[in-house]
Every structure is written in structure tokens, then in C-alpha cells.
Amino acid sequence: MDDKYRVPAIERAHLILKEISLHPGELKLIDLSRTLAINKSSMYSLLLTMENLGWIEKETGETYRLGRELSRFGHAAMQQRDLNESFHKEAAISKLKLGESFQLAKLDGKEVLYIAKEEALTPVRLASEPGMRLPAHATALGKVMLADLSDEEMDSLYRSDQEPFPHLTVQSITSLQALKQSLEQIRQQGYALDLEEAVLGFSCAAAPIRNAQGQVIAAVSCSMMSLQWEQKKQSCIEEICNLAHKLSE
To answer: What is the pTM assigned to this prediction?
Structure first.
């Protein structure tokens, strides 16, 4: 890595966290300062910042241990890894049943972030690679995750957007009112459809993945050419709902 892009403060914070993880509840500021050769003034600022962020916690003896926020990050990372592994295992079976491609995605603000894919051998390949982003309002994946939000949360999320919304095809939803109406139907039926709203010639069904508290944490979808949709529509909806249920906690 080019040195000009390094951030020394982050590197120091990493060293401090590593040292605390090796000696939880044992090290004071002076101990960390001596061990890591960081002057006390800088160490005080780093420790205070990390404590305020919840990365570390100070005990009654002025020693430190890792904080709850890092535990939350760790749990989220493991959960994401487990979800990816489970998706590939289960979606590979669904892919063989339907002969169509499956995607796993998360909601990031007003965008869908694709994080995994099981691709079927079909004549036309759908561009939905991990890391790709699309407007949530124009995709089945996005709509099924937006459906977990309240009207107030939707208003807050889209309050600065000018209407009509950006459209990917002539079928895309372009107003907040139309989007809310669509979300109400999605809540009732438990899945979302995208009938050429994101890509002309392709249709899609998506269902939500929920955690143990019932909150939507991700979603899965099955996409296919619209020529195949009429034949496979019902089996696609059933399979994507079953897959989402298997991946939910």
C-alpha cells in the first residue's frame, strides 16, 4: 500500500485494540503507552475517542477491555458470512429446480447492494454481480426490503427526492405515492415482483430474509427472461419464498 494513503491514527487504534484483546482488563493508559511507544497525550486522545465510540470500555481500576460496539460488529460480520454461505448452499438447489439465477442483496439507504449470486446457465446473462447497486424503488429486492419500513421512515428516506424518481425502464415506479401503494401490497402478500421495472425483458420475484426479531436484514430474488416468466411465475414465487424462509433465523 502506498504510504501516502495510510492513516496513522487508525493504525494506532488497531494496535491498541489488538493489545487490549490480548490482555482484557489488565492494561492502563500508561501500560499501553509504554508497550506501543505512543506518548501519553496521544494515547489519551485515542482511548477517549474509542471509548466514546463504544469500541473499548474503561473498568473501575482504570484498565480497558473491548467494548460492546466491537462485539456488535463482530456478530454482524459472522452473521453476514453465515448468510452468504447458507445462501450459496440453498440457492444452488433452487437454481437446479428452476434453471434460473438467484441473487442475495441488502438495503443500503435507497439502494440495493448485491452481495452474492447463484447463476444458472441461461441464454442471456443478467448483470447483477456482487457489489453492484441499483435504485431500491425499481427492483423487487429493493421493494421487498423497503416494505419493512413505516410510512414515516419512507418519508424521511425519500424526502429530498425530486419526482419523478429516476427510472431504469418505462415500467419503473416514479413517485413516492405509487411506491407506497406497491409496498402495501407487498406487505400483504409477503413477496415483491419486478415486471421489467429494472431491466427490459426480465422479470423477477423477491422475498425478505428476517432475523430472530422479525426484522428484514436482506432479501433473495429469482430473475428470468420475461418469455419464461408466464410459465414459471408461480413456481418462482413459491421457491423464492421457501428460500427466504430457510435463510431467515
So the answer is: 0.70
What is the residue type of 82? Answer: D
User: CA separation (Å) from 4 to 1, 13, 35, 161?
Assistant: 9, 18, 26, 37
CA angle 241, 109, 202 (to 5 degrees): 45
Which amino acid is located at 226 in the chain? S
CB 115 within 8 A of CB 128: no
- CA separation for the pair 134, 197 (Å, rounded): 11
Amino acid in position 113: L
DSSP-assigned states of every residue in 154-217 = HHHHHTTPPSSPP-SSTTS--SHHHHHHHHHHHHHHS-EEEESSSSTTEEEEEEEEE-TTS-EE
In this predicted model, which residue has the larger pLDDT, 81 or 195? 195
Residue 113: closest CA among 129, 132, 127: 132
pLDDT for 109-152, tens place per residue?
Answer: 999 999 999 988 776 666 677 789 999 999 999 999 999 999 89
- How far is it, in rounded angstroms, from Cα 217 to Cα 21? 29
Distance between CA atoms of residues 88 and 55, nearest Å: 32
